[in-house]
Amino acid sequence: MLWSDPENRPPKELRDAQAMLRRAGLVLALAMLVAMLVIGTR
């Protein structure tokens, strides 16, 4: 972006997509942790 651009925020769709990806990554990390615990206890 140019220094003269008035807005420095990404569009709403991009922010929503980033938030969704962040949540999906968190869920995936938790699922992997649970899977590792289940595999480790067998």
Short description:
The chain is mainly α. The protein is built from one helix and no strands.
Question: What do these coordinates show?
Answer:
The chain is mainly α and 42 residues long. Helices cover 71% and strands 0% of the residues. The protein contains 1 helix and no strands. The chain has one helix spanning 12-41. The radius of gyration is 18 Å and the shape is rod-shaped. The N and C termini lie far apart (53 Å).
Count of β-strands? 0
Assign the structural class, choosing from mainly alpha, mainly beta, alpha/beta, alpha+beta, or little secondary structure.
Answer: mainly alpha
Radius of gyration, in Å, reads 18 Å
Multimeric status of the protein = single chain
Which blocks of ≥5 consecutive residues have pLDDT under 50?
Answer: none
The portion of residues assigned to helices is over 70%
- Please indicate the percent range of residues in DSSP E strands (runs of 2 or more): under 5%
Question: What is the global morphology?
Answer: rod-shaped
- Pattern of helices and strands: H
Biggest beta-sheet profile: none
How widely separated are the two ends?
A: 53 Å
Number of helices: 1
Query: Could you report the average pLDDT, rounded to the nearest whole number?
Result: 88
Notable features of this structure?
mainly alpha, about 40 residues
Secondary structure elements and their pairing?
Layout: H1 12-41
